[in-house]
Amino acid sequence: MSNSTIRDVARAAGVSVATVSRALNGHDNVTPETRDRIVAIAAELRFTPSSAARSLITRRNQAVGAVLPDLHGEYFSELIRGIDLAARAHGLHLLVSGSHGNAKDATAAVNAMRGRVDGLLVLWPQVDAEALGDDLSAGMPTVLLNTHLAHSRVPSLAVDNFGGAAKMVRHLAGLGHRRIAFITGPQHNYEAQERLRGCTTTAAELGVQLQVLPGDFNEESGWNAGHELAQQPERPSAVFAGNDMMAIGCLSALSDAGLRVPQDISLAGFDDIPIARYVTPALTTVRARIADLGALALERLVSAIESNAPTAVRHQTLAVELMARQSTAPAPPGATG
Amino acid sequence: MSNSTIRDVARAAGVSVATVSRALNGHDNVTPETRDRIVAIAAELRFTPSSAARSLITRRNQAVGAVLPDLHGEYFSELIRGIDLAARAHGLHLLVSGSHGNAKDATAAVNAMRGRVDGLLVLWPQVDAEALGDDLSAGMPTVLLNTHLAHSRVPSLAVDNFGGAAKMVRHLAGLGHRRIAFITGPQHNYEAQERLRGCTTTAAELGVQLQVLPGDFNEESGWNAGHELAQQPERPSAVFAGNDMMAIGCLSALSDAGLRVPQDISLAGFDDIPIARYVTPALTTVRARIADLGALALERLVSAIESNAPTAVRHQTLAVELMARQSTAPAPPGATG
DNA sequence: CTGAAAGCGCTTACAG
DNA sequence: CTGAAAGCGCTTACAG
């Protein structure tokens, strides 16, 4: 809203607006003295170029959008942090839109951003993502997060949910656990499905018995699962929660029930949100490097924008790492199985 | 990026662009039939008005910006969630910019947003905020969060840090604690200062002995403080951490040292981030309603934008509530003091 | 109720 | 190296 325009600067400097534009945009066809004078005057007048006018003519917004289903918890602050960091490095503004549970809301959010951003990052864990795909492909460069649309023309990025879950089951089995409970995520959530698949596959491979409990990735559902397990007469010797939030909720329920972790029962999570190492006992989990995921997605988006070519369709999977901490321990000698 | 413009729609509908503009913007000087036809054609052509062109002429961006010093932890996801929710309700886009520790970075972020947003929410906990104030006042409507510049012309919003801290000290004193440790936040942070002041004032009033430990609002500094306390031969019977993150870090250190909370030592936090009730034991804390704070700030910003008048300078303080949970208990009989 | 035209503030060929 | 002019895609008085 700085009231001065490029015309004011031009007038004050005694040159044309074209010259001001060139000087301020660093083109080389301006004499150094002219440039310096213009720069000084622009600063004095507190001139800020109108981004609307510039966007209108350059067809670039210098902005990207992030459409996220929901903004709860540390997972999302980490993700946004990673995206923001990378966006800043590229001089791009970041528009954020959260709070859409369903495809309709999310599509509306995507459409609202159309024309305001040069590209879109869409966190889309719903497996029935086809509906969205159509809207997305019509238009600007897009990178999908946390989903795979195998036959989709939209590139995507996700952590190795399957591999991470498999690693955790191996870790628990390696500690002697023969019966494991898995608290799964929302039914139609891609990450939840992959983590579950990693569990069942690996459990079958190792001959480990698996009990699956429902969850929705929030603390409360983890608490409910823990509460139920605590009441079970013959309970598994280890619980693997589909994410850290549920693990923390579960830990709370187990403690409420007087069960000690890991002495009485082992507990593990997934994501390695920053707080995971600070709960008591420190949580064994799968490190997903959430901020890196966001930053990487942004980088891919930027190259898609800059290449100007149709985005190379690649479904990229990021490696994960097992973080063994204090919440998992060897199974009690005479446990079960 | 939808390639059709208002001219395409006008041509297809056999009317002027002015009529298309009026029809699509819901002006009443268009016959219903014409409007319907235009709306249908616009939909068919997937016409999305160029926000750049519209902004250029209306001088409205339909967007607000949030400048935050840092995007770590649940505090920030809650804050952004509240802002986003309220912004959506007003049909406003939200630009987010984080990761600035110092005044220079933040000023750069503010300036980068100038002209792209109709108003600004700035989380500015630094007490030496005068430098920023100048830049802010020159320009668009702004609401400051978590600071008070008594002699500032920028309106602001903060929770009752002083009152919340006072309440907590009373709560602890009421449980019989005569010696309390307070883990404070960053030295030049307004909220940290107010919380500390609430502590010292109330402790003096009640004749409670107060030990102040340094911290920076992050988990690790809470851990360090807890570690130090655990090693202290004559330690206070209660710890009040300046925020929940430090409380959780502190809890971790106390547990590592074999101290039980609350049997051996009581522990409390501030903010009531969602996870606070799920740590073990559930954390006694001061509920700050962070999402509401964000939403309220957005509402104030919107009315400033819409009134078009210079923002009414008001420094608003939001009430807080004590949440007594399991991490605080009566002081052991023969404790100290 | 509708249209022709001006103009928002820039950038960029096109001349010189 | 510099300027005059066109044009990006809209909205809105001004006429009719």
Question: How would you characterize this protein structure?
Answer:
The structure is a homodimer of 337-residue chains. Chain A has helices at 6-13, 17-24, 32-44, 51-58, 73-89, 103-113, 130-137, 161-174, 190-206, 219-231, 244-256, 290-307, and strands at residues 63-67, 93-97, 119-123, 142-145, 156-159, 179-183, 209-213, 238-241, 266-268, 285-287, 315-318, 321-323. The first copy, chain A, is α/β, with parallel strands linked by helices. Chain A folds into 3 domains: 6-58, lambda repressor-like DNA-binding domains (434 Repressor (Amino-terminal Domain)); 63-159 and 290-318, Rossmann fold (3-Layer(aba) Sandwich), CATH 3.40.50; 161-288, 3-Layer(aba) Sandwich (Rossmann fold), CATH 3.40.50. In chain A, the strands form 3 sheets. A 6-stranded parallel β-sheet of chain A has the order 2-1-3-4-5-11, sandwiched between helices. In chain A, strands 7-6-8-9 form a 4-stranded parallel β-sheet, with helices on both faces. The first copy, chain A, has a two-stranded antiparallel sheet with strand order 10-12. In chain A, helix 1 (6-13) crosses helix 2 (17-24), helix 5 packs parallel to helix 12 and helix 8 packs parallel to helix 9. The N and C termini of chain A lie far apart (71 Å). In chain A, 53% of the residues are buried. The mean pLDDT of chain A is 89. Chains A and B meet through helix 4, helix 5, strand 2, helix 6 and helix 11 of A and helix 4, helix 5, strand 2, helix 6 and helix 11 of B. The first copy, chain A, binds a DNA duplex (16 and 16 nucleotides) through residues 5-7, 15-19, 21-22, 25, 29-31, 34, 49-59.
